[in-house]
Amino acid sequence: MGEALKLRPLRGEDWGVTPPDVIRDVWMKIQEVSGDADPFTQVKVEQNRAVLKLYPFSKELVLKSRDPLLEAVKLSIAGNSLDAMRPPKEQPTQELIERLVEPPIRPEDVEGLKERLGEARRIVYLGDNCGEIVFDKLLIELIRETYGPEVVFVTRTLPVLNDAILQDALSVGIDTVVQVVENGITEPFTGTTLEKVSPEVRALIEGSDLVISKGGGNYDTLTEEEEVRGKVTFFLQAKCHVYCTIHQVPLGALIVHNS
Questions:
Q1: Residue-level pLDDT at 114
Q2: CA Rg, the chain, in Å?
Q3: Which of 156, 162, 210, 240 is 20 to 30 A from 126, comparing alpha carbons?
């Protein structure tokens, strides 16, 4: 903690950075001290395994609802609350899955997403945390069955926090549904910027009709990218008061933001 607090942004001496920039530098301190390039390996394995066991129940819950796409979107976003980086560390259960879809979400924003899905032929889906990627798989299956687009799922290349890397996505079977690729970013970075991703992923993003972006890290960075403005739909949960202020929602709300 002492080493982390020496970083200039955390001393209030550099405001020209995004949160993923700060997380990268703190994470590299953790790697240095621990001597482990991926100290959360076991945590991620356990998260994926626990949620995967509940996949059949989650799918039944979604398909029996009045609006399966809406429920799948809510589950995909709310799955972020299983984040190992924040309390409570509640184990996934059927009861917890049912509670995940209770927070409010603006219906008009979901309708805007549906319009985009109806027009999109090529979608790039930027993943976020382990555990919740099981719900991403469920949503992607439903999107493909309902609208029929080509979808590519993008993971981190290097481990950082409990974000999903390629092996995590393969372990929950996303590759059985769509193509899975790494983002090509050669640093432990929790966001996505066009200058950092691989040429392949940049071409996929530029050639897509819609980018679905999961989580706060991708939101914090992609909202700075003028080139993709107008074709990104952000999925995130209002975990902090900054997001609540920006989107005028209560703490814990589920956010679909069609930029």
A1: 98
A2: 17
A3: 240
Amino acid (one-letter) located at 124? V
Percentage of the chain beyond pLDDT 70 is 97
Name the packing angle between helices 68-78 and 133-147 (round to 10°): 160
Distances (CA, A) of 106 to 57, 98, 110, 111, 113: 25, 19, 7, 9, 11
Which option is the CATH number for 41-258: 3.40.50.10880, 3.40.50.620, 3.30.1330.60, 3.40.50.300? 3.40.50.10880
Please state, as a whole number, how many other Cβ atoms lie within 10 Å of the Cβ of residue 78: 23
Integer Cα distance of 209 and 161 in angstroms: 30
What is the rounded CA–CA span in Å between residue 191 and residue 169?
A: 17
Q: How far apart are CA 202 and CA 183, in angstroms?
A: 9
Taking only the tens place, the pLDDT of each residue in 201-234 is 999 999 999 999 999 999 999 999 999 999 999 9
Q: Is the dihedral of CA 57, 60, 65, 68 positive or negative?
A: positive
Quick check: 120 and 210 in contact, CB under 8 A?
yes
